[in-house]
Write a structure and sequence with these properties.
Length: about 250
């Protein structure tokens, strides 16, 4: 599998309903991310947004419409973010206020803050279940996979988890132990996924590893963002061709 690209050049025009005249003809994708001060991975967010914008009109949402935080950036990503965050498209909408029927795909980039607020939000739990029930594309990267756990964390104990039996990946305990994140984790995704009936797999730490199970795409870590979103685009294009053929 190809290694993630290093280029962080911004798109000429971010593909959002407000910035492209043809956006009404595009399918929409929801980019769901954290409003926690622990923040979003700049690498994962930039690749997620720029790649998804090649096919979808992208809307960003956070719990309560809270602002985006990028605690760790390099010079290239900082330039991109400074330009992007000045645009109206960078202002998140509240996940609690979304009309889910408008969106064809859900994309969750990685980041340390992702696991602190998203899996404990009732609107996020409903969103993840609704997208999967309707067989819409879901692409979750790294700690963003925690969104899939929300329904189980907020639901009745003993109830069946909607994603039980599905094949997926997420950061491994070994991978987290190599960072400062392990002791701070409110949820160990590898343990949760195994304990709740998912078919979990992982590669070596920091390796690119993506698992596709029908409409569900999961990536082990932020380094796997590029490969994961490329597969989202591929499946989205296939779905669009099938709809055109059936029309």
């Amino acid at each position: 599998m190809a290694s993630p690209a290093t280029s962080l050049s911004p798109p000429t025009q971010p593909s959002t309903p407000s910035s492209q005249p043809q956006a009404q003809q595009q399918q929409r994708a929801l980019l769901l991310t954290t409003a926690s001060a622990l923040g979003i991975s700049a690498h994962s967010f930039i690749h997620s947004y720029t790649l998804a914008s090649s096919l979808f009109a992208v809307t960003i949402a956070t719990p309560g419409g809270g602002p985006l935080h990028f605690p760790e950036t390099d010079a290239n990503s900082r330039r991109w973010l400074d330009d992007f965050l000045a645009k109206p498209a960078a202002v998140p909408v509240a996940v609690e206020s979304l009309d889910l029927t408008l969106f064809a795909a859900l994309l969750i980039p990685g980041g340390a803050g992702t696991i602190t607020d998203l899996p404990h939000n009732a609107a996020v739990a409903h969103l993840a279940m609704a997208f999967d029930r309707d067989k819409k594309l879901i692409c979750a990267v790294g700690l963003g996979v925690s969104v899939l756990c929300a329904s189980a964390l907020l639901g009745n104990k003993g109830a069946d988890w909607q994603f039980a039996g599905r094949c997926m990946t997420a950061p491994s305990n070994v991978e987290l132990a190599r960072t400062t994140l392990l002791a701070e984790q409110p949820l160990l995704l590898e343990d949760f996924l195994r304990d709740n009936g998912a078919c979990y797999s992982a590669a070596k730490s920091d390796s690119v590893h993506v698992v596709i199970d029908n409409n569900l795409i999961t990536a082990q870590n932020d380094a796997s963002t590029l490969s994961a979103v490329q597969n989202l685009i591929l499946l989205g294009n296939n779905s669009r061709r099938e709809r055109k053929a059936a029309a």
